[in-house]
Amino acid sequence: MSDRPMIIAARRTAVAVRGGRLRDVEAFELAASVLAACVRDAAEALGAAPTIDDVVLGNCTGPGGNIARVAGLAAGLPVDSAGMTVDRQCGAGLAAVLVAADSLRDGGAVLAGGVESASTAPTRIARDGRAYDRAPFAPPGLDIGMTEAAQELARRRGLSRRRQEAFAARSHRLALAAAADARHEIVAVGGLERDEGPRPGIERILPRLPELLEPGDGTALTAGTTARIADGAAAVLLLPESTRRGAPGLAVRAGAT
């Protein structure tokens, strides 16, 4: 039998807007809630609690240190359990799952996922007193923000504001339609059991939002067609296929782009 990495548990928090219902919950607490839920779900599926060898979490805006280790301990894992935090920016959570899949050892399990808390992210300041709101992504002269990069891509691809808004409105409709089915995967934190972002009637709001960069060519981005700054966490539990004891699961692909 091929001993493929298998996902046998997956949980997430609801996603809250920055300053919303999760504004007072630290990132490690968000992560701990879903890690603990994954362990409980896996124990029920396997008939016994799995041995967790490692916790791998993606995080970009946290307070530093090793948030995967802190979250694992907060989730009730033993003090001899390991933890590793990875930062691949928007792909950090996916990268964490792939790292975890590659690190599986015989008989053990690994927890992986991602967490961000924009509400509790620290304000950063250089040693000479200069404040900055984000780390640089490239050397001086090459570094541009995500909004500028997205606007340039929209210009190159000819993605009109109307097309962007239609896509965004569809995303809201799909999220709202799936909300009932998503309840089983959401771990309630701070009493929040439903995503704060999706809203009905968004198609009437989008055309009224101001342009962010005013490119003048009909491809403008707005707050309604760019990524929301939010709080939330998600995690999965992986183990080798040979040890899943008939529990249902999903195989992890060999790679991702």
Low-confidence stretches: none
* Terminal CA distance: 27 Å
Largest sheet: 8 strands, mixed
Report the CATH architecture of the domain at 5-121 and 230-251: 3-Layer(aba) Sandwich
Quick recap of the structure?
It is built from six helices and ten strands. It has helices at 27-46, 67-74, 92-103, 146-157, 161-182, 202-205; strands at 5-13, 16-17, 52-58, 84-86, 109-117, 124-125, 131-132, 186-187, 230-240, 250-251.
Overview of this structure, please?
The chain is of the alpha/beta class and 257 residues long. It has a domain at 5-121 and 230-251: 3-Layer(aba) Sandwich (Peroxisomal Thiolase, Chain A, domain 1), CATH 3.40.47.10. The chain is 30% helix and 19% strand. It contains six helices and ten strands; from the N terminus they run E-E-H-E-H-E-H-E-E-E-H-H-E-H-E-E. It has helices at 27-46, 67-74, 92-103, 146-157, 161-182, 202-205, and strands at residues 5-13, 16-17, 52-58, 84-86, 109-117, 124-125, 131-132, 186-187, 230-240, 250-251. Strands 1, 2, 3, 4, 5, 8, 9 and 10 form an eight-stranded mixed beta sheet that branches. A two-stranded antiparallel ribbon has the order 6-7. A hairpin with a 5-residue loop joins strand 6 and strand 7 (131-132). Helix 1 packs across helix 2. The chain starts with a strand and ends in a 6-residue tail after the last strand. The relative contact order is 0.26. The model has no long low-confidence stretch (mean pLDDT 90).
